[in-house]
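Batch manifest, entry 17 of 40.
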Amino acid sequence: MLIATKNVAFTWSSPVAGEPVSISDIGDVRALAECDDIGLIARDDHLLVRQANRYRGFDLDLDERITALLITDLMPLRALIGTEGAHLYEFDEDSGTARRVVPFDELTCRRDWHTPWGGPPAIRSLAASSDGRTVYADIHVGSIMRSEDAGRTWEPVNPSLHEDVHQVATCPAAPATVYANTANAVYVSEDRGRSWAHRANGLHARYGRAIAVHPNDPACLLASVSNGPRGGDGRLYRSDNSGRHWTHVVDGFPASCERNIDTSQISYDLQGRAWAAVDDMLIVSDDRAQNWTTAWTVHEPITLITCA
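Output type: structure tokens
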């Protein structure tokens, strides 16, 4: 497991024992990814690779901040990197370089991507099917882009979901299903984004940020919503039927948060434990997100978590 605060990254090799170990004060961690014993930690355009107990740093000279990571191959290590500016790169550890994915730059819908404040759009999250063939890139703001050939060519998904997507997710047990939490709550597609079902029943608000899926049950979901982009009454919800109905999470979990429970602040690990970061607390559930306990607290708010 990898955990980040604004200034420090931590690794937790056995979340059921001990405590997280500080990797280094690398400052302003922007993205995390983990698969097996490999972890990626991004700051600006610098990438730190953790493999077992070894660390290698790479200055990628992208001239853009990294905003999303997805490990695509382990031997040799390769990863997709999303950036502010909504560009996509393929990182290769052997060469130590990141190559721009030109077909992603050539998407004609790029001209419609934007942000509410007038800044550059960004790739906010990345996800892939369990076989690695289908890859999704969440554009903030600009819907979701899909590749069905492991990232070589790209196209937009069906645009019937809300364009302001804050996180995209997949489930190893359902390779054709993709999930999105948006500024208008949750959408689910069972055909790789060719059609979408809006899933908001039971939510107290529609402004969504984070979403996570149980690795062995594609119907078991977690999602966060609040009153808006600045937060206000942020809540966590769970569903056992693919979001057709949501239940407010309150047993051992804060019933309401001042801030948003943000993108990449909830996750399921491969054992089916649910994790969530709320302020300086890391909270865990081992019963499909029904009952929660505080697993760890740290000296500043936790900004990102990821589980392998």
